C-alpha cells in the first residue's frame, strides 16, 4: 500500500522548473511527506520532507496544500543530472512504534531534455 | 567520510544456496533497514532494526533473516526458502526519536540467483 499517487512519467526542458505532483489523500495528522529520487541502479537519495509548512533546501522546494492531501516537489532549474525516478512517500507510524516506515510506490520518471 | 556501504555491488549465487549481504554505516544511526526492489517497482521493506539486538519483520520477511549484533552492522541473509531472490537489495539507516527519522540509503547490492 503505497499511500501516494504520482504520474508515471514527466519531462522537462533543461533550465526550466520541474513540478512533480503527488496525491496523498489518506494522510494522517502526524504523517510526514518525504521525497526521494533514484538514479538507475543506485540507492535512493533523500531530497526533502515536510509536515504542514512549505519547505525549501538547496535541492528543491516542497509545497504542501493546506488540507495536506497533495504536494508538489519543485526543482527550480532542472539539469540533465536531475533525470531520475522521484518517489513521494508518506512516513507512517505503526501502532506503538516511534519509528516511522516509508512506503514507496513506483514514483515518477522525470526526464530532463537538452 | 560518513555513509553507508554495501558489499558486494554484484553477487551471483546458485539456486539453493544461502547468501549474506553486508551493510555497514558510520553515521551513528540507531535504526537500520533492508529493502528489496524489483525491476520497475518501488522498494519493499524486508526487515528493520531500531536498536542493537532487536529487529522486526517488514512486509516481505519470508525467506530472509537478519542480525544486529553491532550498531554499525545489519547483515541480511537470503535463504534458500526465498522463492524469488533475484533482486536489487538496499540498506538504509536513520536516527530515531522525535523530529523525524530521515533514512539514508547505501548503493545497493544486485543479487542474481542462477
Helix content of chain A: under 10%
What structural class do helix, strand and pairing data of chain B support?
Answer: mainly beta
Helix content of chain B: under 10%
C-alpha end-to-end distance of chain A: 36 Å
| Mean pLDDT level of chain B | 92
Number of strands of chain B: 11
Number of DSSP helical runs of chain A = 0
What's the N-to-C terminus distance of chain B? 36 Å
Structural class of chain A: mainly beta
Global shape of chain A: globular
Major sheet size, sense and barrel closure of chain A: 6 strands, mixed
Structural write-up:
The complex is a heterodimer of chains A (114) and B (114). Chain A is 0% helix and 48% strand. By secondary structure, chain A is mainly β. In chain A, a hairpin with a 4-residue loop joins strand 5 (55-56) and strand 6 (61-64). Chain B is mainly beta and 114 residues long. Chain B has no helices and eleven strands. The chains are: A mainly beta (114), B mainly beta (114).
Topology:
The complex is a heterodimer of chains A (114) and B (114).
Chain A: E1 9-13, E2 18-23, E3 33-38, E4 45-50, E5 55-56, E6 61-64, E7 70-75, E8 84-93, E9 100-103, E10 108-113
Parallel strand pairs in A: 1-10
Antiparallel strand pairs in A: 2-7, 3-4, 3-8, 5-6, 6-7, 8-9, 8-10
Chain B: E1 4-7, E2 10-13, E3 19-25, E4 31-37, E5 43-51, E6 54-57, E7 64-66, E8 76-78, E9 87-94, E10 104-105, E11 109-113
Parallel strand pairs in B: 2-11
Antiparallel strand pairs in B: 1-3, 3-8, 4-5, 4-9, 5-6, 7-8, 9-10, 9-11
Amino acid at each position: 500500500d503505497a499511500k501516494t499517487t504520482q504520474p508515471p512519467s514527466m519531462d522537462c526542458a533543461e533550465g526550466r522548473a520541474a513540478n512533480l505532483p503527488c496525491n496523498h489523500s489518506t494522510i494522517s495528522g502526524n504523517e510526514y511527506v518525504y521525497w526521494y529520487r533514484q538514479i538507475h541502479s543506485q540507492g535512493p537519495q533523500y531530497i526533502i520532507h515536510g509536515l504542514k509548512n512549505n519547505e525549501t533546501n538547496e535541492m528543491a522546494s516542497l509545497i504542501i496544500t493546506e488540507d495536506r492531501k497533495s504536494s508538489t516537489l519543485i526543482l527550480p532549474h532542472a539539469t540533465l543530472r536531475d533525470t531520475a525516478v522521484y518517489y513521494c512517500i508518506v512516513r507512517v507510524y505503526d501502532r506503538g512504534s516511534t519509528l516511522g516506515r516509508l512506503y514507496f510506490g513506483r514514483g515518477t520518471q522525470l526526464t530532463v531534455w537538452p | 567520510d560518513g555513509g553507508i556501504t554495501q558489499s558486494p555491488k554484484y553477487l551471483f549465487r546458485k539456486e539453493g544456496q544461502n547468501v549474506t549481504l553486508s551493510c555497514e554505516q558510520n553515521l551513528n544511526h540507531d535504526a537500520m533497514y533492508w529493502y528489496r526492489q524489483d525491476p520497475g517497482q518501488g522498494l519493499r521493506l524486508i526487515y528493520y532494526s531500531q536498536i542493537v539486538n532487536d529487529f522486526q519483520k517488514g512486509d516481505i520477511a519470508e525467506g530472509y533473516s537478519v542480525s544486529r549484533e553491532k550498531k554499525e552492522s545489519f547483515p541480511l541473509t537470503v535463504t534458500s526458502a526465498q522463492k524469488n531472490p533475484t533482486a536489487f537489495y538496499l540498506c538504509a539507516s536513520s536516527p530515531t526519536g522525535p523530529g523525524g527519522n530521515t533514512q539514508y540509503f547505501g548503493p545497493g547490492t544486485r543479487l542474481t540467483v542462477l
